[in-house]
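#help-structures

NK: newbie question. if I give both the sequence and a SMILES, will the prediction place the ligand too? trying with magnesium ion
OV: yes, paste both and it writes out the complex. here, I ran yours:
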Amino acid sequence: MKVICIANRKGGTGKTTVAVNLALSGVHNGYKVLLIDADPQGSAFNFQERRLEERNASFQLVMKPSKNLHKEIGQIGNGFDLVIIDTGGKDSKAFRSALISADFVIIPIQPSQLDLWGLSSTLEILEEARTFKDIEAKILVNMVPPRAKLTKEALELLEELDLPTFNTTLGFRIAYKEAIAEGLAVFELDPKSKAANEINSLWQEVKQWVGLD
Ligand SMILES: Nc1ncnc2c1ncn2[C@@H]1O[C@H](COP(=O)(O)OP(=O)(O)O)[C@@H](O)[C@H]1O
Ligand SMILES: [Mg+2]
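OV: that's the protein plus ligand as structure tokens.
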């Protein structure tokens, strides 16, 4: 069982988008996947409801915005190859619990100066969590705008901060929004789209990182 938490204290950086697209990548590749929605707003839960209206094949989902998740994760995740925890980042007890439930943390950020500053709060909590257990973390640069200069500056800043970052970045693409609205992964909406390529590439990196066979 590999447990990945998708975390960022800041809202709207793409946590839920990344969580459901990675979870469905896992399902399409034959893994038993559990998505834990630890966000009281239940965005992943709503996605799953929308999805199940039309199709059957999906991940399992449980709603668990709980400060006790880390105590129950072994039991909840039992029998799954991959457990992905989507967080809201608001309630700090549930957020901390979600972090220490995981062995791997993906931090999606937008490539703006502001978002990089917002990172520090997430990283501080991660450092606290690391006093309990080893947790590997990687930054995922999401919503990369067509204006490449901004992105380059942000990537340089990340390099300065010395944080592990995925080689794959996700562009700002309407397909990500459309797919979510239809209860689909981007590669289901259009397998030939740029977004689909990005998610496939991210999935390969994640798979190797966490050591899924
Ligand atoms: N790469 C992207 N390109 C375009 N829109 C995106 C992208 N990633 C996320 N979004 C959109 O941005 C909004 C916030 O994303 P969401 O995944 O809900 O963030 P979070 O869970 O961190 O609050 C949603 O409307 C989502 O569809
Ligand atoms: Mg969300």
